[in-house]
Amino acid sequence: MARGRKVNSNGERSKQLLLEKAIELFSINGYYETKISDIVTAANVTQPTFYLYFKSKEKLFSDLNEEFKRNLLSIFSNKLECLSKGNMTAREFMYEFIEKALTYFYENPNLTKIGFFDAPNANELKDHIVNLFIETMKEQRKLTINNNIEINTLAHSILGSIERLTLKYILTKKESPEKLAKDILNIYFNNNQPALTN
How many Å apart are CA 21 and CA 109, to the nearest integer? Predict the structure, then answer.
């Protein structure tokens, strides 16, 4: 008979607790200041238990960043699919993506701090999102408020707004994702269309 831990066993709870404590400690102390011993102490498990589930601190941190990236890009892909099927306008697409991304950040503040701000590849991820914005807006040029605005500048400005508002209002839970998404959309995409209201 095969031996191993069952799903929902103490082992699964230990793994989940290790993940939660690692995310919390990485977001507070940063990667270099967080030690495996800190994580296992916070999770109240032994160091061998850590190595049952994770190869190393580096691999754990890398996996957390990949999870963040995968989840964020999945939000973009899902909304892009709706846009391409004609289920929403480009304006609605931008609102939906921004609102869903900010909601994800709001619900996962520690993982967001790691993946969107602290990770070594955070700037690559942001550049990738900017490029996705650019491609979407090139196909939907009528979306912009002013056709004299460079799409690259617009895309970087939107991401910069998302980044700054996430730090100021989302991670601190001072504003709702819905309100901030409407504010961002009304700043950049009014284009003689009725402004979204709160």
Answer: 13
pLDDT of residue 148: 66
CATH (one of 1.10.150.290, 1.10.10.60, 3.40.50.1000, 3.30.230.10) for 10-54:
1.10.10.60
Dihedral Cα 176, 178, 179, 181, nearest 10 deg: 120
The pLDDT of residue 79 is 76
Are 196 and 186 contacting, i.e. CB atoms less than 8 angstroms apart? yes
pTM metric for this prediction: 0.84
Domain 62-188: CATH architecture, name and number where available:
Orthogonal Bundle (1.10)
Sort 118 into a burial class: Cβ within 10 Å, 0-12 / 13-18 / 19+: middle
Indicate the domain borders of the chain.
Answer: 10-54, 62-188
| CA–CA distances in Å: residue 189 to residues 182, 186, 192, 193 | 10, 6, 9, 8
